[in-house]
Amino acid sequence: MPKVRVRFAPSPTGYVHVGNARTALFNWLFARHHGGAFILRIEDTDVERSKEEYERQLLEDLRWFGLDWDEGPDKGGPFAPYRQSERLDLYRRHAMQLIDARHAYYCFCSPEQLEAERQAALKAGQQPRYSGRCRTRPREEAARKVAAGEPAAIRLQVPEGVFDWNDLVHGPTTFSSEVMGDFILVRSDGQPTYNYSVVIDDHLMEITHVIRGDDHISNTPRQLALYQAFGWQRPEFAHLSTILGPDRARLSKRHGATSLQNFREMGILPEALRNYLALLGWSAADGVTEIFSDQELIRQFSLERVIKSPAVFDQEKLNWMNRHYLKEARRRKLAELSVPFLAQAGYLEEPADERTLGWLERVLDAVLKNLDTLSQLPAAVRLIFEYDAEGVLRGDETRHVAENAGSRDVLKALIPKLLEVRDLNYERFRTIAKAVQKETGKKGKDLFHPIRVALTGAISGPELEKLIPIFEEGSKLPLRRHVKSVAERLREFAAAAGLS
Q1: H or E, element range at 356
Q2: For strand 5-8 and strand 162-167, is the pairing parallel, antiparallel, or unpaired?
Q3: pTM attached to this predicted model
Q4: Which domain holds residue 277?
Q5: Cα distance between residue 445 and residue 451, in whole Å
Q6: Within this chain, do residues 150 and 205 fall inside the same structural domain, yes or no?
């Protein structure tokens, strides 16, 4: 068996959608499992919709996603070029081969004629297909018309019969040539069609397996007709199921995030997304395991366990998986990933220096257990960066601190003692809290709840053991938004509550 060679061949006409990302991932896993080659090919023959910025974004998103390719437009390879727009001469030469072999012919039908045929077929309750009126035109006449500059498309002369293959996901699949007709290979403007160019490229790049979405199943018989016309060995085909939204309609923007860029902006980790998408339509050997390293995915992956029924995208399940990977990630890595989110919220300067990154590690350690995604981080750390004593006294859940006599007794005893401490740490804080406990007779919630509210402006949140060092260290950092120290917070609270 030849070395496995697979390809991911997106069009640079928009962002990388979840379905395309999963297709790329399955191709990558299949190639790595078999020790083969993963090729990236850019199908940019749609001149009006293809844009360079989309290609740049596509490459960046795939790298962020964690995929690497062995050949491609940015890396080159033995079958370059890897952009279809740079391969037009190849398509023309192969089209001429088909014409010379009488497997293809020039078609001079106008759009109006073709539309009239289509409408007539529909009216008769038949499947629209080309009538073949140019099929019998003498070759010499067709050549003269082309030489004279008359616009002409090139069509494949499809033989009668059936085209079948054993799909590696769907099993034996058959299409009759009757539903196809003689389809266009090259348009009258010289641009190749998808079904034509993809066959040329897959053959010349020695692709052994075509793994793609099942929306391409109807394209496969046309491509098989071309392989037959050229006399080429065809690759194996595997068509992956559609991805649906929770309402079981095809996944689209109305369901929320659908592109790699969306998930990146949400703060989903690429390793979490890879793990989750691998399980959309594929399952582990034991049918139970859900958390996989890349190495384990590569080791276990096979097309035999890819199911043909549609997979349902579950954002909550992805969030659960991302939460796992957030907890497992190195704190320094998360601190670096957090900077853009906190900079956008107006809290940090970007890029962050080493001291700030070290401090962010502490911040993340305090709030991480409550995060599904990094985009939730600004809300989780608001109590660190934003403190408003007046707001605490107005809040429905916190204003009782200024009104409750027991709470005021605790804070009257605590605040002067804490303000006397120059280098506050949690140990010194605990010592003072114990002294206040003896002085006021308050303990447990009665002691620490008013302290929490006065310091953070919230009735719940991270442990004070973690927050107090964060306040103290953060107040000394050159952040875009100043973090108030414990002393600054207590002075403000005391003044606003009339405790000074």
Answers
A1: helix 354-367
A2: unpaired
A3: 0.92
A4: 253-327
A5: 10
A6: yes
